[in-house]
Amino acid sequence: MSGEIKTLEFSEGVSVVSPVTIFQFFELEDDSGDWDGATSTKTYDVSATISDARKMDWSFQDAANNRRVLQGADIDFPSATQVRVSFGVNIPSGTYWLIGVGAG
Fold first, then answer.
1. pTM for this entry
2. Are 61 and 70 in contact (CB under 8 A)?
């Protein structure tokens, strides 16, 4: 399982809130089966595509529910190239998406 990194560039005339003109969009579909209904935490290694995950905004989405963002996800960073997703309870078995946007 590996994530895909996309670099998006803005053309002239497009206004953005921050001075960043190039940013990365990272998406990883987790269909590994690790989210099996008995799991509340998982750590993802994003080192193949991201040099510093802490510089990006992250969300965790449910693939089976129109990629709805799962509320209650605590997303933190054990290291610059790891993203940990934790919940206070076990989440249902399924396929999920880890999404990151920023200048990682």
1. 0.75
2. yes
Alpha-carbon gap, residue 72 to 94, rounded angstroms: 17
Residue 79 contacts residue 44 (beta carbons within 8 Å): no
Task: Give the C-alpha distances (Å, rounded to integers) separating 97 from 22, 27, 39, 87.
Answer: 23, 7, 16, 15
The enclosing H or E element of 10 equals none
Render pLDDT for 64-99 as a digit per residue (tens, 0 to 9): 888 888 888 999 999 999 999 999 999 999 889 998
CA distances from 81 to 4, 45, 67, 75, 98 (A): 14, 6, 24, 13, 14
Q: How many helices (H) and strands (E) does the chain have?
A: 0, 8
Query: What 3-state DSSP class applies to 21?
Result: coil
- Rounded Cα distance between 96 and 99, Å, is 10
